[in-house]
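sorry to bug you again but im stuck and you know this stuff better than me. what follows is a protein written twice so to speak, once as letters and once as structure tokens for the fold. mainly i need to know what kind of three dimensional shape the backbone takes. anything you notice is useful, everything is just below:
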Amino acid sequence: MSALTWACSQAKAVQQMWEESEATEADYPRYMLADPILGYSADEHIGQFRFLANRRARKVKLKEPFPWAKERLEWLSEQASLRKDTAGREQRRYHQLFLNISP
């Protein structure tokens, strides 16, 4: 088996893994969000999954599995970033107050 053949088979296997993950991930919101709630629907959840899959693939230098995907839940990303900021500030404050450690 040539290196090119092996690389192609690996790329196909990874893409199949992403597609299986998408199918599995899609079952949950279709069940839980049969009736959408304000700002959140099954389609938006699945779209966000695709966006995050692309981001994770890029991070490990793989081809994006869903190149057409766009961020669907910007408000959720903002909330996640806020939580990280808040947690970081709280942790630094804890270290300053109780452990007498400077950041």
